[in-house]
Amino acid sequence: MGYAEFFNSLTGNTPFPWQERVAEGPWPEALDVPTGMGKTAGVVVAWLHKRLQSDPDTGRRLVYCLPMRSLVRQVAEEAVSWCKLAQPFFAEREKPAPRVHLCMGGEADASWEEDPEREMILVGTQDLLLSRALCRGYGQSRYRWPVSFGLVSNDAFWIFDEPQLMGVGLETGVQLQAFRETLGTLGPCRSVFMSATLDSRRFQTVDHRAPISPETRIELTEYDRALPSIRLRIEARKPLRCMESVIMGPTPDQTFASTLASEVTRIHEQRGGLTLVVLNRVARAQAVFGALQEEGVAAEDLSLVHSRFRPVDRALREELLRADGDRVVVATQAVEAGLDISARTLITELAPFPSLVQRFGRLNRYGEQADAAAFWLDVELGEKAAGAALPYTVSELTEARSILEGLDDVGPDQLKSVAYAPPLPVRPVIRKRDLVDLFDTTPDLLGFGLDVSRYIRDSEDTDVSLFWRSFDG
């Protein structure tokens, strides 16, 4: 069976040419293709096919690393479906089909460590997966640290999905791959980074000096672009204009929420379909959601999505995103990446340009909306605007504004032509000496281990999780 037939039997679709190049050629270092092009299927189904072919360059453990919890379950569900459909092909070779294991806070499945000889897919957040790759697995007994470290560092295949959202996790992933290449591993261990907004400069770290070359980077070719299904997506029209009637001041208040809710209601009544409103802060999204309720938007047609809901509540609220009919969803950055939705109308607060690219990817995703429209909300960026800019900086928003003012359409081809090269932030970079030190798992005098959090996720978040329990008497 050829790869096209294998891909179709698992996904129900014909693979794009770039997906066939991934499966039939050597693994790339980077996948730089627009949103809505099936990157997840492109790598997971290719990995299954290569494992069936006993490809010597494909590790038996696929480690799928994601920046946020909201994406983990979606990817895991797709992977479970594909593995189930691939089971007959593995049975022909007298091999068990790969299992899928979740690795995220509160749902860390450790059973995968018991079967190191099996093909498997680990889908998890950067926190749990990178901590295991640094021999300091979060949520694990220290006696298990070396076990998971060995399994994800040897005979493994890493996928970093949306690495631009991982902060220091991207540099750590690049460095760890450099160490594996220089120190050697038992079995192949490769890394692939995939996104619609890859910044190749971040791959040139102190120990990974050569940036990703054209030979190891897969992008859309002219042959890809000539296909009607791809051309429809990359040439999708997404007219953009500033919502001049709503400007957020240095200290957003209820007036801002009420004014925006009134405009959202008016636009939604005119246009229908899915209207997606993306704001930068949870409190701001909550205020606008409440104002929309006061505007009379029906409860069954209105939802609020952000990262602070419990998983079960979050799943219920995300159902409206994938439903049909007229509906309004207010969200935060939780919808920026990975969610397979296609809105007719997008209203977004000013944000850093890479974040805006991800948000625009949720609009007219497949080119099926003939009347799609995007609106952006400006922010007063004066001397007292630091609070209004959070969680971003004034300079990031200023630069994004200058780019948006020069755009009247935010389709994939238009965004690809934007020259955007912000200064690279200074981040802690793990070195070989640090990695060697991590082999010592002995606790210090206070009973703690060496802290690796600075290599896993940027530490600007000052939120605190509070747990309590009631006792009688």
Topology:
Layout: H1 3-11, H2 17-24, E1 30-32, H3 39-52, E2 61-66, H4 69-92, E3 99-103, E4 120-125, H5 126-133, H6 145-153, E5 156-161, H7 168-183, E6 189-195, E7 217-218, H8 222-226, H9 228-234, E8 240-248, H10 254-271, E9 274-278, H11 282-294, E10 302-305, H12 311-318, E11 327-331, E12 345-349, H13 353-360, E13 373-379, H14 386-389, H15 394-404, H16 412-416, H17 432-437
Helix pairs in contact: 1-3, 2-3, 3-4, 10-11
Q: Keyphrases for this structure?
A:
473 residues, alpha/beta, Rossmann fold, 17 helices, 37% helix, globular
Describe the protein's architecture and organization:
With 473 residues, this protein is an alpha/beta fold. The protein folds into 2 domains: 228 residues, Rossmann fold (3-Layer(aba) Sandwich), CATH 3.40.50; 176 residues, P-loop containing nucleotide triphosphate hydrolases (Rossmann fold). It has 17 helices and 13 strands. The strands form 2 sheets. Strands 3-4-2-5-6-1-7 form a 7-stranded parallel β-sheet, with helices on both faces. A 6-stranded parallel β-sheet has the order 8-13-12-9-11-10, with helices on both faces. Strand 10, helix 12 and strand 11 form a beta-alpha-beta unit. Helix 2 runs parallel beside helix 3. The radius of gyration is 23 Å and the shape is globular. The model has no long low-confidence stretch (mean pLDDT 88).
